[in-house]
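Quick question about two entries, pasted in order.
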Amino acid sequence: MTAIGDPGRTPAPGGRARADACPGALHVHQAADGGLARIRVPGGHVTAPQLRLLAAFAPVELTSRANIQMRGLASGAELPLAARLADAGLLPSRTHERVRNIVASPFSGLDDQSLLDVAPLATALDAALCAAPALAALPGRFLFALDDGRGDATALDADVTAVPLGGGTPDRTAKAGPPQVALLLAGVDTGLRVPAAHAVAAMLAAASAFLDEVAADGTRAWRIAELPDGPRRVTARLLTAPHRATSLYGTAPSTSAPATGPLPMAPASADPDGGPLPVPPSPVPRSAVPPGPVPRSAVPPGPVPPGPVAQLDGRVALALAVPLGRLTSAQLDLLAEASEATGRAVRLTPWRGVVVPGLAAADLDAWTERLAAAGLVADPASPWVGVTACTGRPGCAKSLADVQADAAAAVDASAVDASAVGLGAARPAEAGTLPVHRAPVHWAGCARRCGRPKGRVVDVVATGNGYRVDFGNVGVNCADLQETVAATAAVRGER
């Protein structure tokens, strides 16, 4: 085991040498294990019939954008697959299928943390996007995000993010008025403010301005962050062409300095400790009666740990982690059954998890036990929480190891260790953040680190001669899996 320095990160390129080849349901990528199809799920909502259709193609994978991947497809299988997806409402547009990348706060409209229910906006944004022929030219990696005010979607640094301002005005202490949203570009607060009723068209105007900037630059940038000074240039184009913006959404965008219009969280370009932080939903006790309100705590935004969350209507939403983001046919069928029982769509999260909303408090324990027995994780103390991995061997020809098998073996080993030091005991989860002893860890089969989550992550990267474990300024070369497990546990704070 050899200590090494911080590997650093390669900065985003200002342009690409090739056109975007992001897979879709029709544009299938040929991987080492067969065809790979990616099905966009704007807003993450999946109905019971859709879940049962996906079960027929299981196992399926959840992506870091709350989309779904199918692997191992035979040549030509995309055509009958597309027909079935279209019938189920999962492929409403053949021309725009790869650009329907829309993430939304998974608990929006369910609990008291939402300043604005963005679920209807996700539906409206998808429809308007598909109705705009020019926007079919967006790269398949261009990302829209709708944050309900808690900061979870904002933290993803999407290309275009809409986030509500508290009280409907830039001044949260002022008298409430019509809801207002701020537009963030590549995670940067641009100062643009629009009425929430015009958020969809404003986001599309920003996407159109990005395409104009790419054309003017003569590059093949896939993201706003890849354009030199991208956020400022896209903002300037929106403001210098107000007639175009007005025709798109009825009113020209107004601007205010970010400092005078504070967002529910500090923009990504600001000091993370410099402003008020939103709070994810609080877990509720398992009880046969609807729980009372739980006080908020000031913690940074992030994925909600597995477990129950109180809804405003007295029901309960159950957050579940999906080990390595892979859902089996039995798990999908059970989720469909839960969706039918509640009459609510299941919600996929950008952290490769699932939320089952609308459970009766009296039924919570029974559903938790059934879903956990099927292999989904409802315990915030589970060693699976925060563990992700790329496809690895044999699915990816570039991978240097079977990282999924190794990650699972590492989890099994850490479960034994956690139990020995008391980490396996059930305890309340701290809302919105993993405990300090459970920093997220991502296993990657090569230096590309595909699927890596945003933020501070323990990177476990295959080298061909073992693994390299990186976290912050610490790096360790490991010769075998046993050393890798030990090093990962050490940097995660488990030992």
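Here is the second entry:
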Amino acid sequence: MGYLLDVVLILLLLIAVAVLVWGWDNYVRIVPLTSDKFGLFKNASKYENPDWVKKINERGGMTRTEWASFIDRHYNPPGRPPENSN
């Protein structure tokens, strides 16, 4: 019984670590606006809320989730077929 409890606790610990790493990477870690990303951001940010643009500029980057939604809003408009559709 003690062995089974140890295995369950280790599995729960591994799952918790994986969830924490995923959450950190998607919602906390800031992806810096490097020169290539800054060009995309500069071109499309004129259509965004100025307060949000100011916040991103002050932080120097976006989280991965913010970046993905920003790209979807500006470069993958609704109704447009995917690039690789035949």
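Reply: The helical segments are 2-28, 35-44, 50-59, 64-75. The chain has one domain: 2-75. Hope that helps.
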